[in-house]
Amino acid sequence: MRVLLVEDDDRLAAALTTALSRHGHEVVRAALAVDALRLAGGVDFVLLDLTLPDMDGLDVLRRLRRSSAVPLIVVTARIEEREVLRGLRSGADDYLVKPFRTAELMARMEAVLRRGTRPLPVRDEVVTVGDVRIDLDARQVHVAGEQITLTRREFDVLALLARSPGVVRSREEILDEVWGDPLLSASRSLDVHVAGLRAKTGRPGLVETLRGTGYRLGSTA
Prior knowledge:
Blueprint (H helix, E strand, L loop, with lengths): L1 E5 L3 H13 L3 E5 L2 H7 L5 E4 L8 H9 L6 E5 L4 H9 L4 E4 L4 H14 L10 E4 L2 E4 L4 E4 L2 E3 L3 H11 L8 H9 L9 H13 L5 E4 L3 E4 L4
Parallel strand pairs: 1-2, 1-3, 3-4, 4-5
Antiparallel strand pairs: 6-7, 7-8, 8-9, 10-11
Pfam family, one: Trans_reg_C
InterPro entries: CheY-like_superfamily, OmpR/PhoB-type_DNA-bd, Sig_transdc_resp-reg_receiver, WalR-like, WH-like_DNA-bd_sf
GO molecular function: phosphorelay response regulator activity; transcription cis-regulatory region binding
């Protein structure tokens, strides 16, 4: 099996390469996120560190999942529960915290392969709701053909909902993904940004509130 090892620590990368090779795997190593994204299309498995010099590993993971269902395990020193949840929600098949034993890594890789490759999510880069057009790649929103200006976080909130139409996102999940801190759930930051989205688009139903649950992409009706 061809394994992409995304790890910027040379000593750890060398040790893992040796261990994987002993188990019959061919290892392709990338120390930078840009190389990982370029190489991921030609491998059977990805081991991804989250701390990379040119991009956060979670961003790499999200980009990979837009176009690839390759089995992937996050291998990182980040031990906080919030980081584990973010990794799994972003599309990782498993999450392994350093330091770990080689035997555990191999067992987890085998378990992921036994479960089978996850179906590739269908992600439209342009999401249309009524007369609202949300271009996720270009980070642009048009209403009735006119482009409107959103703040970075307003767009991030809308994009998170737009990537999974119909899926309810909890306040904690949105605050974690957009602000990086679920503890902000006691503040009104999210409410202010949702209000801004409704006002700027002129479509109050675009972001639907489910009281006590969270938010989801609504309609313009």
